[in-house]
Design goal:
The protein is mostly beta strands and 155 residues long. Helices cover 0% and strands 50% of the residues. It has strands at 2-3, 10-16, 19-22, 26-27, 35-45, 50-59, 64-66, 70-71, 85-87, 89-97, 103-106, 129-139, 144-153.
Length: 155
């Protein structure tokens, strides 16, 4: 949120990275690219006298990941696949292990995979129970985030 003192006798322009983003006393700018950005405010009086203020800010993308702790792959149309949701996510991949540490499923490098409770090796539905996961999430800025936890399969 950007703001300056309003004045009815003043023309106001906000610029971020030399692009005009607003012409009012208040402007809102959503960061689309992480990194250093320049900001400039130009106020012109009715007599056309200009005053300029400039600065820099560092923008970060919003990143949030929601990883469910259970799902029910029973083909009822509700929670039939385990997948990660959130904002600022570019891609992710994961591995699912049984309680003895044996690999049950490993996602490929597609953008946003889902596990439907099927063993990658037998092609059969896994039994009800707890499974461990390890996830690597790549955010839209290219940073990797690592998560691990337990999923409960309910049928």
């Amino acid at each position: 949120n950007l703001s300056t003192q309003p004045n009815t006798r003043t023309d106001i322009q906000w610029f971020v990275d030399d692009q005009l983003i607003g012409g009012a006393a208040r402007a809102i700018y959503a960061v689309e690219e992480p990194g250093r950005h320049t900001i400039k405010l130009i106020k012109r009086s009715i007599e056309k006298c200009a005053d300029t203020a400039e600065g820099e800010f560092y923008g970060k993308l919003d990143f949030k990941a929601y990883i469910p702790n259970s799902f029910s792959p029973n083909d009822d149309g509700t929670n039939d696949a385990w997948r990660i949701k959130g904002s600022g996510i570019q891609s992710y991949h994961f591995k699912i292990y049984n309680r003895w540490g044996g690999l049950v499923y490993g996602s490929k490098n597609n953008a946003k995979p889902a596990w439907k409770g099927i063993s990658q090796f037998t092609g059969e539905a896994v039994p009800v129970g707890n499974y461990l996961y390890r996830v690597t999430i790549v955010d839209k800025a290219g940073y990797r985030h690592y998560r691990k936890g337990v999923i409960q399969v309910i049928r």
